[in-house]
Design goal:
Elements (H helix, E strand, L loop, with lengths): L13 E7 L5 H12 L7 E6 L3 H8 L8 E4 L6 H11 L4 E6 L2 E3 L3 H9 L4 E12 L25 E3 L6 E5 H7 L18 H12 L4 E14 L6 H22 L1 H28 L4 H29 L16
Parallel strand pairs: 1-2, 1-4, 2-3, 6-9
Antiparallel strand pairs: 4-8, 5-9, 6-8, 7-9
Helix pairs in contact: 5-6, 7-8, 7-9, 8-9
């Protein structure tokens, strides 16, 4: 911690937290860390959290990075939420930029998002997250469903948003001081079917606790999010939509349907119908892929709705979904 720069009056101190879990992502992880180290201006600290993979932690500690990087292991339950909570505990910046281990950030990303947080009412900001396809992008894949890949999707507009997207988001430390960390009852793990929406739950909880605050989408800078070949398939697409439905069912029980589904109502009544019309218009213009995109929009919505219905039915037949409380995060030296 000796490399941490002490606060300068008028300057928000910053930390970048990158969570990782798999040796299979070694190459892109190193690119993500290198991009984090090359931010202009530089972050006050960079923390890489390894999620219950000691060999990967040893491998990272043995590597020489161009700037100081602190390698720590997740001290919370396995999963992305626990890893992020560890990063919050061990870092000291007033502003924390969370990056995925497969997201390579623009050089001005941190500065752009911190500039948004100069406004005291802004609790957090998310950048543009662009898909970096390992193979050719499937012609059937609709922009409206890029959220299935953790990327910015069509229909998300600059300005206030209900929640951030985790691959490239910046949050004030004071948010965690007031509300606790990410809920470990949600968040992806390496071994289990992912129950996501942990960022959404946190943002809803934060705006309830800090009603004059807001989260914003700032697309002028961003990150390239790697999309491997096995995620450019119909199987992954439908599976991810179904898992999102399950997650939204859990979230609606935790936060209430009003907050949990507010953005989704607009998405279903405006964004998706416009996408279908756009697909049919492309067909009329001689682009057959437009029909495939229209079909994908319908199939994705159906899979998401099926997952949501299953999640709510399970809760009704068993017992209400109970989350793991996100306790106040104490600093770890």
């Amino acid at each position: 911690m000796d490399d941490f720069q002490h606060p300068v009056p008028g300057k928000l101190t910053t930390a970048i937290v990158i969570c990782c879990y798999s040796d299979k992502r070694w190459d892109i992880l190193n690119k993500a860390i290198a991009a984090a180290a090359r931010q202009v201006p530089t972050a006050d600290e960079i923390v890489v959290v390894v999620d219950h993979n000691p060999p990967l932690a040893l491998r990272l500690r043995a590597k020489c990075f161009e700037t100081p990087v602190r390698i720590v292991e997740n001290i919370h339950p396995p999963g992305l939420s626990g890893a992020r909570n560890t990063g919050i505990s061990v870092s000291r910046g007033e502003v924390i930029l969370f990056l995925d281990d497969d997201a390579v950030s623009d050089q001005d990303l941190l500065a752009t998002l911190v500039w948004q947080l100069e406004d005291p009412s802004v609790l957090g900001a998310v950048s543009a997250i662009r898909p970096l396809w390992e193979t050719d992008r499937p012609s059937w894949f609709p922009d409206e469903f890029l959220w299935t890949l953790g990327c910015t999707y069509r229909g998300l507009h600059p300005g206030p948003v209900r929640n951030l997207i985790g691959a490239s988001m910046c949050i004030r430390r004071s948010v965690f001081d007031h509300t606790g960390g990410f809920d470990s009852g949600l968040g992806r793990t390496a071994k289990a079917l992912p129950l996501g929406c942990e960022e959404t739950e946190l943002c809803i909880r934060a705006t309830k606790a800090l009603p004059h605050g807001r989260f914003v989408f700032e697309p002028s800078s961003g990150s390239d999010h790697a999309i491997p070949a096995d995620r450019a398939t119909w199987k992954y697409f439908l599976h991810r939509c179904w898992a999102e439905g399950l997650s939204k069912a859990c979230l609606s029980l935790m936060a209430g349907s009003g907050e949990a589904l507010a953005s989704e109502k607009t998405y279903m009544t405006r964004t998706l119908p416009q996408g279908v019309m756009r697909g049919f218009a492309d067909v009329l213009l001689g682009q057959p892929s437009g029909l495939l995109r229209a079909v994908a929009l319908g199939a994705g919505l159906a899979a998401t709705a099926a997952g949501f219905a299953l999640g709510r039915t399970r809760a009704a037949l068993t017992r209400p979904f109970t989350s793991v409380p996100a306790r106040t995060l104490e600093p770890v030296e």
